């Protein structure tokens, strides 16, 4: 083996041995560093995993959603608007939908109610149900519930329940299905019913609905068709599936970024601690360096030794922090930070996050944690290495 | 009379610490000294007289502030620190006053420490260390931590470490200062054996057991940074 490579290996070996010998002293730094990396990585992985989960679930979202705005507020669309889209070519189907929030006073929770006229017959939608079926056309009072709604209403095995109209009269409903736990991000607080039942619950006019769900034959034409729809229905808000995906990504990235910004303060504090610890090297350390230099170690060798020690500490702490963060997402669904990311909801969705890590996330975390630590230990390493050889004589 | 080749040659050497500053110390003054190959030379003098500085100078720890210094035929003045260190590890073996053995390392690891920056492989390090450990009777302790062995064994570890590079010159700073007479005798016996192997040995001491040892070829007295007696090779 090349002498200079062997020299580096020898110094690395000595450094690792030395670290192990001083494990009591280094453990504290290692533990704090692992903790900081765990927190940063958890935020990053949680953001990436939630975005990925949302992406996987958004395959069920229509290509284009159309809503009507008036003075900046959403107002119902009428059947007339539906007719205006007849002139837009490229649309394969249009479904009217009603959605809104129902406030359950006794539980203090908001449910999302969606009324859809479409009979759900395709396999993809069926696979989203854990049990039962979708409301069939003309089936009055049939509802599919999200798991959090089911728990919150305390239905147990009962199928029938009722909700209040705005005039406080009751609407009788019965459960025909329950959504999968895995898509809880979107369905935890959801009540899916027929268009007529939703219209009845919200006391809307017989030809009114809140939005139109548009499917496009050629996906590359979605932006063009969205633009044509906006022209055809003045004052409409036209949202594509891509825009929804980007909104989720932006929301999770913003929350992750906010969390990371807070954690950077703790990282900075740790780097200062590492710097300070390195500067205050003990008499034993000084003695060791003096002996090594007297025995023919160069200043550069000592600096490399200290660098390898820092690198080993950083690499082990980084590995441990990343592994813990990964386990946190994989086995505990990011329990520590769920409320930071999803805390706006009254019904906190309990769903399985799809763990998702990209190489660039790891690199980013390394650049923001291990590199500052290594940089912080350079000056102390240099100060340690300039101990005079004759200090031990 | 036989004229021997000088292994160490110092001529008009001065050494200052903190030169040009308020706390300047003139540690060595007009040193003229020759040490021939195969000699055992003892530097004797009171504390603060400059013995250790002179030993460090001969050990290539630093160069002279002025004058000429040659060790093993190599001129030290104007030699950059990096080259001094490189030259030191090839030419000099050190035995320190407290032996300066790292307590957390094993006996074998301590002995091979000077070989690590030379890029010597673990196998070769072992091959070099084993005969030395055998020679000094510490091979059964090779995996013991230095903190777990006796003072006499520590002393032999220190000698083995000084010899691991097979240097022609061995320097020892007060090697018997903290040893009882039997250990001191044992150490001197080892040094005498090394001398017979052709090593040049310079040590600092004011222990009569060393200064009056029959195998010590010269005793050089140092007072206030000057050699007062015994600087040149006689025979």
Care to describe what's here?
The complex is a heterodimer of chains A (393) and B (235). In chain A, 53% of the residues lie in helices and 19% in strands. In chain A, helix 2 packs antiparallel against helix 9 (241-279), helix 2 packs across helix 11 (299-332) and helix 9 runs parallel beside helix 15. Chain A is of the alpha+beta class and 393 residues long. Chain A has helices at residues 3-21, 23-57, 79-84, 123-127, 147-153, 184-187, 195-202, 222-232, 241-279, 283-294, 299-332, 338-342, 359-368, 370-376, 378-385, and strands spanning 64-70, 73-75, 77-78, 91-104, 109-116, 129-132, 142-145, 160-164, 170-179, 190-193, 208-209, 211-216, 236-240. With 235 residues, chain B is an alpha/beta fold. Chain B has a 6-stranded mixed β-sheet, sandwiched between helices. Chain B is globular. Classes of the chains: A alpha+beta (393), B alpha/beta (235).
